[in-house]
Design the sequence.
C-alpha cells in the first residue's frame, strides 16, 4: 500500500524557504496557512459548493489555485473584490499575490462545480495517475491534487473543514472530529487539523460508522472508527481490534501517537491510500483476510513516518523504507527468523532480476511509480534500515528512531536529518554508510576467494580472503565459521576490493560461509538464490521447448507458455543445445523424464509426487541460467494448468491435482561455502 504522498506528487512541490537545510533548525515561519472551509456535496447530482476563508500569516509571494472544473462565484482579498483568477473557462484559477510587508492576508473564495462520475472499474494505478475529484452514490473521493478547493501551493497548512452531505451519506477529511450531527435533512461534520498538513483529501459514501475509544500510552483517548460500506460492516470489529494492537506496538516502539483519531475508510475503487489519521482502502482489499495483518499496520505506521515526519522529496523519500522495515518486515521477524530471512531473500532476488537501466540510487526515489521503483524505494530502503540496525545495535537504533520522532515531528525531514540523528545518538560517523547506500546504484558483489589454515600459537589459525566488486564499499561482512561444535558468525570489516583476515579459533574449523543469513544488501551470486518459476516467466530471453509432436498437446503447451510469459513463446527444438538463456520445458511425464536423462540433468526431484496430475519445478544449471519444467499426465492435466500456474511464479516447485495446487515450495539457498582443506 502506499502513502498519501503519492497523490501529493502530482503537484510539483517546492518547500522553498519553508525549512532550513541545517539539521534540526526551526522552520522559518513564512506562509503560515489556515483554511476555514465549508463544503456541501451532493453525490447523486455530483455537485460541490464551497466557501473557504484562507488566512496567510507572514506572507511571502502567494499562489492560490483552484482546479479548472470549478466556477468561482465570489472572491475577496483582504475584504476587497478579487477577480476570478482566470480568463478562460478551461483554465485552472490562479491568484498570484506578490510579496508585501503585511502581517497577514485573508482570502474568501466561494466556488461550485460538477464532480466527475466515480468510476468503480478504475484500478489503483489508474486512480494514482488521474487525481480527479469524483463522486457518485457509492463513494466520493476528492484527492488533494485534484484541486477541489482553493489551495496555497507553497507550504503546509492547518485547517477546519465542515462537511455537509444528504441523508444516508457520511464523510470525512483527516483530522479531529469536532462536531457531528445527523437529521432527515442530512449529515454534517466538522474536522480540525491543527498541525501543519500537506493537503486535504475528502471521502464520503453510504457509510456505516462504528466507533470505539482506545486509551493511548499516556492514557489519552483516541477515537477509532470504521467508515465501511454496509456490505462489509461486519468486518468493523476485527479491524478496530487490529488498529489497537498496532497503536500499542508503535507507541511503545517510537513514541505517542500524534493524533486523537484513526479511521479505516472503505473505497468503492480498489485503491490503498494512507493519510494522517486514516487509511482509505478498497472494499475488495478490506475483504482480503491478510490485510489487517500486513497493510493495515503499514498504513497505521505512516502516521509516524510520512504523515507525522514528512519526507523531504528534494533529497529522496526515506519514509516508505522505514515504514516497510518497521511494519511488513517487522511482522516477519515477529513470526520467526526464517520468515524474516525469506523476505530479505525476496528483496535481493527481485533486485538481482532488475534489467539494466531499471536500477537507481535510493536518494533518487521519491514515490512508487512502477515495480522497479518499489524494489529500490521500499525494499532496498528497508534493507538499509536493517543494515543500520546491525551497525548500531538494536538499542541504539531504537533510540535513534525515538529521537527522530521527538525532534522531527511535523517537520519536513531529509535523509541527512536521519543521518545526523543516528550519529548524534550513536556517536559514530555514519557518512560513508549513508553515502554509499543512498547515492550509489547497484550493490556490491562479494565472494570468498580463499580460505586456508595458518599457524597459530594456540587453537586453530584460519585466513579468509574476501573480494568485492570495484569501487569498494565499506562493509561489515558476516561470515559463518562451522566447526564440529558449533557455527559462529564473525564480522569482517571489508573496505578494499580484496582483503585477507586472519582469525584464531578455539575449535577446528570445517567450512566458511559468506553471509548465509543475508544481512547485507548485495548482488547474489549465480545459483545462490534458489531458482523460482518466475525466471522463465519474466525474463525476456527465455526459450521454450515443447516435448511433443501430437498436435493437440502441442497447442495446449504453446498456450500455456504464452500465458506464463505473457507473449508469444520463443520456441526451440527439443534436441537443440541449451543456450545460456533460461528455458521453459513442457511435456508429458515420460517425455520429460527421458529428456532430462538425455541431457544428463538431475531427474525429477523427490518433492514432486508422481501420483499427481501435473508438476512444475525449477532446476539450476551450472552456468546459472535456470530451467522451468512443466510435466503433465495427459492433455487435460496440462490444460488444467493454464489458469492457475501463472500465479505461482514465486515457487520453486508445485504439484497439481487438476487445477488445485497440492504442494508447493522453494528450494533451499545455495550459500557460498568454502571447505577448510
Ligand atoms: Zn507506504
Sequence:
Amino acid at each position: 500500500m502506499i502513502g498519501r504522498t503519492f497523490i501529493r506528487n502530482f503537484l510539483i512541490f517546492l518547500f522553498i524557504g519553508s525549512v532550513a537545510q541545517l539539521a534540526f533548525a526551526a522552520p522559518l515561519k513564512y506562509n503560515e496557512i489556515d483554511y476555514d472551509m465549508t463544503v456541501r456535496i451532493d453525490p447523486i447530482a455530483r455537485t460541490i459548493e464551497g466557501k473557504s476563508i484562507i488566512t496567510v500569516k507572514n506572507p511571502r509571494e502567494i499562489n492560490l489555485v483552484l482546479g479548472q472544473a470549478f466556477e468561482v462565484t465570489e472572491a475577496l482579498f483582504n475584504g476587497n473584490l478579487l477577480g476570478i483568477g482566470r480568463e478562460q473557462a478551461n483554465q485552472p484559477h490562479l491568484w498570484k499575490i506578490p510579496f508585501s510587508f503585511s502581517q497577514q492576508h485573508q482570502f474568501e473564495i466561494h466556488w461550485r462545480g460538477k464532480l466527475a462520475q466515480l468510476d468503480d472499474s478504475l484500478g489503483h494505478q489508474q486512480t494514482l495517475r488521474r487525481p480527479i475529484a469524483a463522486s457518485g452514490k457509492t463513494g466520493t473521493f476528492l484527492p488533494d491534487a485534484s484541486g477541489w478547493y482553493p489551495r496555497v501551493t507553497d507550504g503546509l497548512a492547518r485547517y477546519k473543514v465542515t462537511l455537509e452531505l444528504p441523508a444516508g451519506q457520511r464523510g470525512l477529511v483527516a483530522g479531529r472530529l469536532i462536531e457531528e450531527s445527523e437529521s432527515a435533512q442530512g449529515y454534517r461534520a466538522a474536522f480540525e487539523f491543527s498541525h501543519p498538513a500537506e493537503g486535504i483529501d475528502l471521502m464520503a459514501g453510504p457509510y456505516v460508522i462504528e466507533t470505539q475509544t482506545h486509551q493511548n500510552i499516556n492514557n489519552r483517548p483516541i477515537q477509532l472508527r470504521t467508515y465501511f460500506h454496509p456490505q462489509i460492516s461486519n468486518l468493523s470489529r476485527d479491524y478496530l481490534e487490529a488498529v489497537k494492537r498496532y497503536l500499542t506496538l508503535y507507541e511503545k516502539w517510537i513514541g505517542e501517537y500524534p493524533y486523537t483519531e484513526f479511521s479505516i475508510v472503505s473505497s468503492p475503487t480498489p485503491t490503498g491510500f494512507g493519510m494522517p489519521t486514516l487509511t482509505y482502502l478498497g472494499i475488495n482489499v478490506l475483504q482480503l483476510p491478510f490485510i489487517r495483518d500486513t497493510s493495515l499496520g503499514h498504513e497505521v505506521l505512516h502516521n509516524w513516518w510520512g504523515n507525522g515526519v514528512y519526507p523531504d522529496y528534494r533529497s529522496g523519500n526515506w519514509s516508505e523504507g522505514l515504514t516497510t522495515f518497521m511494519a511488513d518486515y517487522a511482522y516477519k521477524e515477529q513470526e520467526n527468523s526464517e520468515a524474516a530471512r525469506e523476505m530479505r531473500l525476496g528483496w535481493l532476488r527481485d533486485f538481482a532480476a532488475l534489467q539494466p537501466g531499471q536500477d537507481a540510487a535510493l536518494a533518487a526515489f521519491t514515490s512508487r511509480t512502477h515495480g522497479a521503483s518499489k524494489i529500490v524505494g521500499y525494499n532496498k530502503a528497508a534493507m538499509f534500515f536493517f543494515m543500520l540496525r546491525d551497525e548500531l545495535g538494536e538499542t541504539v537504533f531504537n533510540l535513534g528512531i525515538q529521537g527522530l520522532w521527538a525532534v522531527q515531528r511535523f517537520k519536513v525531514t531529509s535523509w541527512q536529518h536521519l543521518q545526523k540523528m543516528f550519529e548524534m545518538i550513536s556517536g559514530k560517523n555514519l557518512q560513508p554508510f549513508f553515502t554509499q547506500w543512498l547515492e550509489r546504484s547497484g550493490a556490491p558483489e562479494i565472494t570468498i576467494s580463499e580460505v586456508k589454515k595458518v599457524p597459530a600459537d594456540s587453537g586453530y589459525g584460519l585466513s579468509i580472503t574476501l573480494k568485492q566488486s570495484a569501487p569498494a564499499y565499506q562493509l561489515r561482512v558476516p561470515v559463518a565459521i562451522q566447526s564440529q561444535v558449533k557455527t559462529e558468525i564473525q564480522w569482517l570489516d571489508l573496505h578494499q576490493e580484496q582483503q585477507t583476515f586472519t582469525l584464531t579459533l578455539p575449535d577446528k574449523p570445517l567450512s566458511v560461509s559468506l553471509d548465509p543469513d543475508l544481512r547485507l544488501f548485495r548482488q547474489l551470486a549465480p545459483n545462490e538464490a534458489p531458482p523460482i518459476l518466475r525466471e522463465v516467466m519474466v525474463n525476456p530471453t527465455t526459450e521454450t521447448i515443447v516435448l511433443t509432436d501430437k498436435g493437440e498437446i502441442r497447442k495446449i503447451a504453446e498456450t500455456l507458455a504464452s500465458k506464463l510469459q505473457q507473449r508469444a513463446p520463443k520456441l526451440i527444438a527439443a534436441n537443440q543445445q541449451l543456450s545460456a538463456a533460461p528455458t521453459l520445458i513442457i511435456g508429458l511425464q515420460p517425455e520429460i523424464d527421458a529428456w532430462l536423462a538425455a541431457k544428463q540433468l538431475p531427474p525429477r526431484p523427490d518433492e514432486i509426487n508422481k501420483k499427481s496430475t501435473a508438476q512444475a519445478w525449477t532446476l539450476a544449471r551450472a552456468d546459472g541460467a535456470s530451467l522451468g519444467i512443466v510435466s503433465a499426465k495427459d492433455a487435460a492435466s496440462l490444460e488444467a494448468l493454464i489458469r492457475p500456474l501463472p500465479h505461482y511464479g514465486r515457487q520453486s516447485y508445485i504439484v497439481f491435482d487438476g487445477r488445485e495446487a497440492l504442494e508447493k515450495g522453494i528450494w533451499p539457498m545455495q550459500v557460498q561455502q568454502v571447505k577448510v582443506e
About this structure: The radius of gyration is 29 Å. DSSP finds 15 helices and 37 strands in the chain. Residues 1-3, 298, 302, 320, 323 surround zinc ion (CB under 6 Å). The first strand starts at residue 2 and ends at 3.
